[in-house]
């Protein structure tokens, strides 16, 4: 995959007319705008950003949506509250604006965050120490690679009481649990300047898909689905055999 993207980036960079305005074209045009941008947006960096954008737009999205459908089907009280908020917005054919996605669907966001806490798509986040530092009594010299496990942080009972319970309300910003939680306890998109560049877009896209799906359907576990679910691990986590559900059309 990395070699393929390197070749695509090189071919696109060699084109005088890059045609439509897409993510890669914008990056390449920006890299040629000034000397400073040329030094920042090197071919390797552009390939890395493109790879990250591709992953964020496909594998992580499908994993999160599959996880949400699976978990909501297990919790009828969550489904009822989710449907009530979605139905209260208005007619099924009205598409929420970006601003409305931010303000009109707080419970949809809580369900998404709790889903990403429960089943975290990115198993590891790597960082290199830019200077000598001491963390938790351990001395880490400059250049040390540090691996963070967001899924482990998200199951710490100190920040998430009853971590094996699916409870979206724990992400209600007015709840005491949310107020006292460490700001870095939940980092599904990474953290700092190397965090996922598409996280805001991803949340908007996830909200839209969830709203559209639950306006028209509800989901139930299929008898053919294995239990417990099995996972496969690589750069991202995925379900080994997928999530098998029955789709039921909503008639009201």
From TrEMBL:
Keywords, A to Z? Heme, Iron, Metal-binding, Monooxygenase, Oxidoreductase
Binding-site positions, heme: 196
Q: Can you tell which superkingdom this protein's organism belongs to?
A: Eukaryota
GO molecular function terms here? heme binding; iron ion binding; monooxygenase activity; oxidoreductase activity, acting on paired donors, with incorporation or reduction of molecular oxygen
* Cofactor(s), by name: heme
* A Pfam family assignment: p450
**What family does the entry list?**
Belongs to the cytochrome P450 family.
Can you say what this protein is called?
Uncharacterized protein
